[in-house]
Model the fold of this input.
Amino acid sequence: MPPSSTRDYYEVLGVPRDASTDQIKSAYRRLALQHHPDRNPGDHVAEERFKEAAEAYTVLSDPDKRARYDRFGREGAGGFGPEGFDPSVFGDFSDILGDLFGLGGLGGRSRRGGPEPGADLRYDLTIGFVEAAFGVTRELEVPRLETCATCSGSGAAPGSQPVTCPTCAGRGQVHFAQGFFTVSRPCPQCRGEGRTIEKPCRDCHGHGRVERRRTVEVRIPAGVDDGARLRLSGQGEDGRRGGRTGDLYVVLSVAPHERYHREGAHVLAVEEIGYAQAVLGAEIEVETLHGREKLNVPAGTPPGKQFHLKGRGIPRLGTSGRGDHVVEIAVRIPKPGELSDEQRALLARLAVLEGRPARVEKTVLKRMKELFGAD
Done:
């Protein structure tokens, strides 16, 4: 059976009487998409539900009509009925049609042929670790669409002009019946432009723009990090019919460094020291982005200990400060074959003194006796 035309509007949309405007709109969109005639061809029940939901939304989305409906019922809200309902009163109706079919709205679209902004462009650029730390200037070759100099962007050959499209009379759209309402779509002859070109420009072939490769200079500030995005205003594609030029977005990737690792504005580096240096302490030199620096390693420093060299890291973007150079200590263990017999003998003697004798060869034992006696 067709749905009753006297059902409560809140019941039609399936919302409570204290529903917000957003809840009402969401419920209407859901029902309109579900029961649209083009999704349910030949289904008269679906078409009636579609009309009923639209009628309910017309009233409940308007604060004044909703207040009168809540107080006096349908008659108070203006006596809408399925015969008198005009779906073109909705602004949201065109949005739903666009969701369903990619079509234009209900006869209220703005005229085509006005200024059209140029597209934004993206350029992916890889820079080095040190370049990111201190900044660098690069020149980029960017392909982009620019206004044709021959026709000044009109698309028409010199001495001629575009003419009004005879199919849509310059509106850029044609209208046709879609069920019980009228919808519009871009004109198939002029493709929504509202005009046609009888004598196309020989250079741009009627498009009004040509592709050019331009050299663009980009200054990369000190302290940028991986994934940073720089915007170059007006370096994108030219607009059409006087539209604004788009922007160029340069997206940065920072190449890894063989020695350094970055955490924010801090630079992390691992420095190897010997076992004796770790036990007894030492003064070592470390290489930073800003040159060599001395670092005091206290006696008894364990592997993994970190030391900060203040202000020797990466500039903080947009400020005058810098991060630290962070040194992480690693104790180097010699590989077999890298130690002399004397070094082995000294280590073997240390092991004995610690009460943890190590495995040694006969030649090492002999050398140890020569150095320390018979024990």
